[in-house]
Design a protein that fits this description.
270 residues; alpha/beta; Rossmann fold; 9 helices; globular; binds nicotinamide-adenine-dinucleotide
Length: 270
């Protein structure tokens, strides 16, 4: 079993309860974020895809997470049951982490124009973008004293990245949804933000044709010439989910070692 990340310990999340979605294994970004939140005293519930119990339960046990529920975000009954489970255990919550995305493998390669089907496009949108709207509605109903919601996106929403295709379009919708949700929920003291990490070695990346290339390019084209670290992404999540981030909402925060700021590199100079 994977080691728990050694994240900075403290009390920034002491007394705060919330939900982390999207833990599939020890490489999941949601797992890194959960490790950081737990190290700062948060009480966490995991919502995971049905069938992932064998992988998720040992990870939950490592962090002392006692509230777990299976959820398929495309199924309303499953969403109702999962949020009810957390409500019964926690009553109210202070934070919510949306770390969910999916597109058919066939849509994550080659020509965007040729390979994008209606069914695949709508499925990617449903799981990767609409689920955030649905989760925000359900989570905010459990935040009477305000709170903080984050989602995970990727720069393939802003620029055309080889093979990212339909997922890039879904991420663009997700980022716009972040701003609309921030506007709606702001008066209730609920902040909504998106983190945009560089490519990281996870199950989701493995589903993208040329995912390894995305990692290598992410490193070589970044300002810092290094991979995006789980510690960096989890640290940014902690900032946004704790009171440190109290005046920040509706933002898209890149945590990508400076990948998104670069123009052409020295090698490209004519
Ligand atoms: P991951 O595969 O570990 O996480 C994706 C999660 O989505 C999994 O836990 C999976 O079970 C869940 N999921 C998929 N369909 C679902 C459904 N119908 N219902 C409920 N859950 C469902 O990979 P990850 O890289 O940790 O991805 C987490 C988020 O980070 C995604 O939004 C991804 O797009 C984003 N992201 C990843 C990278 C990267 O390079 N890995 C970079 C930037 C952003």
């Amino acid at each position: 079993m994977a080691e728990e990340y050694q994240m900075p310990k403290g009390e920034l999340m002491k007394g705060k309860k919330g939900i982390v979605t999207g833990v599939a294994n020890h490489q999941s970004i949601a797992w890194g974020i959960a490790c950081q939140l737990a190290a700062q005293g948060a009480e966490i519930a995991f919502l995971h895809l049905p069938g992932m119990e064998r992988r998720v339960e040992p990870l939950a046990a490592q962090l002392g997470v006692k509230v777990l529920a299976a959820v398929d975000v495309t199924d309303d009954a499953s969403m109702d049951a999962a949020f009810e489970t957390v409500k019964a255990a926690f009553g109210t919550i202070d934070f919510f982490v949306h770390s969910i995305a999916f597109a058919n493998k066939d849509e994550l390669k080659g020509s965007f124009v040729e390979n994008t089907t209606r069914e695949g496009f709508l499925r990617a949108m449903d799981i990767s973008a609409f689920s955030f709207v649905d989760c925000s509605r359900r989570a905010s109903a459990m935040m009477p004293d305000g709170g903080s919601i984050i989602t995970l996106t990727y720069m393939g929403s802003e620029r055309a990245i080889p093979n990212y295709n339909t997922m890039g379009v879904a991420k663009a919708a997700l980022e716009a949804a972040t701003r609309y949700a921030a506007r709606d929920l702001g008066p209730k003291g609920i902040r909504v933000n998106a983190l945009s990490p560089g490519a990281m070695r996870t199950l989701s990346l493995a589903g993208i044709s040329g995912g390894r290339g995305m990692l290598a390019k992410g490193r070589s084209l970044s300002a810092m010439k290094e991979d995006t670290s789980m510690e960096g992404v989890a640290g940014a999540a902690l900032w946004l989910l704790s009171d440190l981030g109290r005046s920040t909402t509706g933002e898209l925060i890149h945590v990508d070692a400076g990948f998104h700021i670069m123009g052409f590199t020295e090698d490209d100079e004519g």
